[in-house]
Design goal:
Helices cover 37% and strands 16% of the residues. The protein contains 26 helices and 26 strands. The strands form four sheets. Strands 1, 2, 3, 4, 5, 6, 7, 8, 9 and 10 form a ten-stranded mixed β-sheet that branches. The chain has a seven-stranded parallel β-sheet with strand order 14-13-12-15-16-18-19, sandwiched between helices. A six-stranded parallel β-sheet has the order 22-21-20-23-24-25, sandwiched between helices. Helix 18 packs across helix 26.
Length: 796
């Protein structure tokens, strides 16, 4: 596989093939950076045609030769050469006059676009909003010695009125702005020495259009403030002189009317620049790459703070701002090594699995990785497993589960700084050049998220497995495909992610049985079971309590219930207390913390009915149960926040809406009814979830037909916008606000409800008012019951 031009524009084909966007790139002696700048533009992912126009201002280094190598390969790249050195302003004028696009963007030869979908998102907005003349975003600033800063501290989107534009209440860098083109060429005064850069272009288009600007906080470009550029190499006084000259030209040539509001605003700005201190870009707060990665990891790790986790793991969340910063960290590493995309070849029979670590008893992800590897090995692939070492992995796990000469295992040094871990991981991927990369990024692994970079592999294929809690890295624009398991899951993601990336492959496992092994009522009475790899899937404050449902089921069936998976001691005590209260022998609740062969253990213990956990259920567990022919009882939530068992299991299995409904159905179950449901479950598994069926979808990346209804039951929400995790604006350069005085009776505050206003502190009085049906109320009742049991035992 080779990387070639994605958007090809043949200007000889007439109006129908006119590019929608023209990217103008003035260059002069930028041999060290121009290739990266060009590739960041040429490889943009769009559904429209665009062109890149390079104007070479008589470069004396290798810039011309580098540009020409791309010119020969990309037919949407046009090159104009100035006969003499004219300066950036004239170069931009010439490119503007040659541009065919409805929109234009200036990208200097030492800056880069960071996000591969940047142009698409900006065009989508302007196409649908005629009242805006431009859309800009935040940008990272790369200082010498690899120090980073940000152009804007603002982390919330906003619309900037024409009046606010005139008053200079917005600033975005040149590398961020997509403009509507006004006319066929720029006026002659743009040839003046001072009429260069973003100030001239911005105010010219603002004054001529009198429209608004859209600002989005996405960090989608990099401003290389290295000290050798046309602007960064200047001293403060020289910059001030150019700024003042530009503003005076705008005042006198563009506005002209001395009585206008625009004229007064420009004069006020001129006076300010004359008196301004020399801080500017150079005076912004900076951070190292290590600090950036640590900030990302620590911010995402807050999903494990108890009060955040109790809410986050009941829904599907992503963190777009942190995903973007992680992608930025990886792009900086690629940029520093000058790793290029054009004409890179890949080993189509090699697949790399990126993992944070490997934990056999950590849930269904480990098994899914094993089964994907098995499919690829059978198809002749060689496999590499690269670990970021975020989660420790014992060598014995590799030897036991991946002992095959075609499988290579490597892990980053867990003691190295994050930037060195990232560098070593990117180097491994670069030299492996795999045809496919399958990332499995845990909820807070910033290094692994940052390593997802376009050009390291032929395709980056994200198997969407974290369908609850924080789904990390899903907004990384280097991802080519996302494997979704259910239509409801796809609809939830489609509100935030391009559905064209989706490949619909239902959950799959290897079929261990040639025929249906299920025999109903082997134990004489109905034997039920539930299974969850994590305690929170049953230990939640959902309106139907797991411990009460199980107690009621046991009272109805007279049988035994098995629970597979870990449970906290307090919750176990609560279950036994509830059973004792209802006169049920606690021995009828059997806890099995883990079973390597879950289906085999179900069959061995004569499980008749699987009670799927609610409202969070593991797809893999439900599929494994079906493979054994064991019938299921699935809850049908009225307002689901997550995929339910009914989304990925046989639709003919039993479902329940209320506890009365559940108990009534359980009381009527007999051997013929169970056998009929068993046959249906087994038949559904064979026709939908057998790994042999999935193999072709995985290998060809085609998937089943996926038709989205457009009305999702639940959505992938942003964890920051939902108020669960606050994003520290001071990292972006915002001035810290003074802390509010702490009330005398206050306790530690919960997470802020919004990113701008902290939630009120909860007092002791508030705690006393906790609803008894809430999670906190139930925990309090658990403790009270344990205390009573302990006191009763002492009295006895």
């Amino acid at each position: 596989m080779h990387f070639d031009a994605i958007n090809v524009v043949d200007t000889s084909r007439g109006e129908a093939s006119r590019p929608l966007v023209s990217i103008l790139m003035p260059v002069f002696n930028e041999e060290k950076t121009v290739a990266q700048a060009l590739e960041s533009a040429l490889f943009q992912r769009t559904n429209f045609e665009f062109e890149v126009i390079v104007v070479n201002d008589c470069s004396t280094d290798e810039t011309s030769a580098i540009v020409e190598t791309y010119h020969r390969s990309f037919s949407n790249l046009r090159v104009l050469n100035n006969e003499q050195n004219c300066g950036k302003g004239v170069s931009v004028m010439r490119a503007y006059a040659a541009a065919l696009g409805k929109y234009f963007h200036v990208l200097d030869g030492d800056d880069i676009f960071v996000s591969w979908d940047k142009l698409q998102k900006q065009v989508d907005f302007l196409e649908g909003n005629d009242e805006f003349f431009a859309i800009g975003h935040n940008s990272a600033i790369l200082h010498p010695e690899e120090k980073l800063a940000f152009v804007s501290p603002h982390i919330v989107p906003r619309d900037v009125s024409y009046k606010d534009c005139v008053a200079n209440r917005i600033y975005c860098h040149t590398s961020s702005y997509l403009f509507r083109k006004i006319g066929s060429e720029l006026p002659n005064y743009f040839a003046k020495k001072f009429m260069r850069g973003d100030t001239a272009l911005f105010f010219y288009h603002a004054f001529k259009s009198k429209l608004k600007v859209r600002y989005v906080p996405d960090v989608s470009s990099l401003y290389n403030f290295h000290g050798n550029g046309l602007w960064s190499s200047l001293e403060h006084d020289e910059r001030s002189e150019i700024n003042i000259g530009c503003l005076e030209c705008l005042r006198d040539d563009v506005v002209a009317d001395p009585e206008s509001e625009e004229h007064g605003a420009l004069q006020k700005r001129i006076d300010f620049v004359r008196q301004a201190s020399p801080a500017g870009i150079a005076g912004r707060k900076t951070a190292s790459l290590d600090q950036l990665l640590s900030f990302c990891g620590k911010t995402a790790s807050r999903v494990f703070v108890p009060e955040v986790r109790s809410a986050a793991f009941k829904g599907m969340y992503s963190f777009q701002a942190i995903d973007q910063l992680c992608e930025l960290a990886g792009r900086l590493t690629m940029y520093g090594k000058d790793y290029r995309l054009a004409h890179r070849s890949f080993d189509e029979k090699r697949a790399v699995f990126l993992v944070s670590g490997l934990v056999p008893d950590g849930g269904g992800i480990f098994k899914e990785i094993k089964e994907l590897i098995a499919i690829l090995l059978k198809a002749g692939f060689n496999i590499s497993i690269f670990s970021s070492s975020r989660i420790a992995t014992d060598r014995s796990i590799i030897d036991e589960h991946f002992n095959d000469p075609r499988i290579e295992y490597w892990s980053a040094d867990p003691k190295a700084p994050p930037s060195k871990q990232l560098e070593s991981l990117i180097d491994k991927l670069w030299h492996s050049a795999p045809g496919r990369i399958y990332p499995f990024v845990t909820h807070h692994d910033a290094v692994l998220s940052a390593s997802l970079q376009r050009g390291l592999g032929g395709q980056i294929i994200l198997d969407f497995v974290y369908d609850h809690g924080l789904s990390f890295a899903v907004h990384n624009t280097s991802i080519d495909k996302i494997i979704v398991k259910t239509r409801s899951q796809a609809e939830a993601l489609a509100s935030r992610i391009d559905p064209d990336k989706f490949v619909f492959v239902p959950p799959f496992i290897v079929d261990k049985y040639k025929r249906n092994p299920y025999v109903p009522l082997r134990n004489g009475r109905l034997t039920t079971a539930s299974a969850a790899a994590r305690p929170y899937k049953v230990e939640n404050d959902y309106r139907f309590s797991y411990f009460r449902i199980i107690s009621d089921v046991l009272a109805t069936t007279g049988g035994v219930h098995y629970h597979y998976g870990p449970l906290n001691e307090e919750y176990m005590a609560l279950i036994k207390s509830e059973l004792s209260r209802n006169g049920i022998d606690p021995a009828r609740f059997i806890h099995i913390p883990w079973a390597d062969d879950l289906g085999g253990s179900f069959l061995e213990n004569g499980i008749d009915l699987f009670l799927a956990p609610f409202p969070v259920c593991s797809a893999r567990i439900a599929i494994e149960v079906m493979s054994c022919g064991i019938p299921s009882m699935n809850h049908n939530a009225e307002m689901p926040l997550l995929p339910q068992a009914i989304d990925f299991t046989d639709p003919d299995q039993w479902t329940w809406n209320s506890s009365e409904d559940l108990l009534l159905q359980v009381s009527r179950m007999d051997a013929p009814a169970l056998a009929a449901k068993s046959d249906s479950a087994r038949r559904y598994f064979v026709t939908h979830n057998d790994s042999d069926l999935a193999s072709s979808h995985v290998l060809q990346m085609t998937g089943l037909d996926l038709k989205l209804s457009g009305g999702p039951l639940f959505e992938l929400a942003d964890i920051c916008k939902a108020g669960l995790i606050d994003l520290d604006r001071t990292f972006y350069g915002a001035v810290p606000s003074a802390p509010a005085p702490k009330p005398a009776a206050a306790i530690a505050p919960p997470e802020p409800v919004t990113i701008s206003e902290p939630a009120p502190r909860r007092t002791d009085e508030d705690i006393e008012k906790v609803d008894e049906t809430s999670f906190l109320g139930r925990i309090r009742r658990v403790r009270q019951k344990i205390i009573k049991i302990w006191q009763a035992s002492l009295a006895a």
